[in-house]
Design a protein that fits this description.
There is one protein chain. Helix content is 24%, strand content 36%. The protein is of the alpha+beta class. The chain folds into 2 domains: 145 residues, Hotdog Thioesterase (Thiol Ester Dehydrase, Chain A, Roll), CATH 3.10.129; 163 residues, Roll (Thiol Ester Dehydrase, Chain A), CATH 3.10.129.10. Strands 1, 2, 3, 4, 5, 6, 7, 8, 9, 10, 11 and 12 form a 12-stranded antiparallel beta sheet that branches. A hairpin with a 5-residue loop joins strand 4 and strand 5. Helix 1 runs antiparallel to helix 5. The longest helix has 20 residues. The chain is globular.
Length: 309
Amino acid sequence: MSEMIEVARSSVQTWECDQMGHMNVQFYVDKATQGLSALAAKIGLGKRFVASDGARLFARDHHVRFLREQRPGAPYFWRSGVVEVRDYSLRVYSEMVNTVSGEIAATVTADVELMDEEKRSVLPLPAKTKTAAHGLMIELPAHGAPRGLTMDAPRAAPKLADADKMGMVSTFTGEVLEAMCDGQNFMTTRFYMGIVSDSIPNLLAQTRGEDRSSSIAGGNIGGAALEYRFIYRAFPQLGDVLTLRSGLKAVSEKTYVWAHWLFDYETGACVSTSEAVAISLDLTARKAVPIPEQMRIGLERLVIPGLGV
């Protein structure tokens, strides 16, 4: 087995942080995606390959764990390795490390495929790429393994009508804007997570009657995600209108699991399915706390059977 290689290094910017005062979930995915480009360059799929063959690596399945929050100014680096090599895909593991403390802040495991940039059709991995990837093989660390979620095969893609029939809540509707897209006018990976993140205040308002802006200003309890899984099923383009449906999958004493299904507003086709493990967070101590009893009772009434990725 090999050592992981460094694929990114930077610091947390204020504009990357959310109402909870820490780096927002979408930017962990964004940095991991940038790191994937560096890893690709190490296995023969860098800028020159992309220019000549018109293809690059894209994630189809993401598992993300958030281990320690990172606040504005925190220096970090990302390191990566290859867990599995297949004919049409790789399983890549990456972790974000605080430069000063050496503590691991987050882990991202991705199933990535080589795709045509214009058509997003899957292509076989070149033999030289698979050989190079074998030279970067690592074992998945225990701290990167799933904890509150499972890595079972994804469900059949739901339709928008299915989500509405199940009673999932409408939490986002909006157009794919130019700033959300890559050079081929496809929405970048960051914004799948970004849409889910932006939907949370609406989700809380409609399921618990909370206004996050006032509750944060006047209270000491917030929320934070511990773990996410995303299945990327389609590639929205500039001008597409997307709509998100969200519902509660499960509740325990300390955690609750939300499912988020993203759809094309016009066709009803599924764009992505995801689920997230969340906790209650003491905003002063910056520690997880048990879900307050009244909140837990209210959440239990919202559980919808059959949700998940």
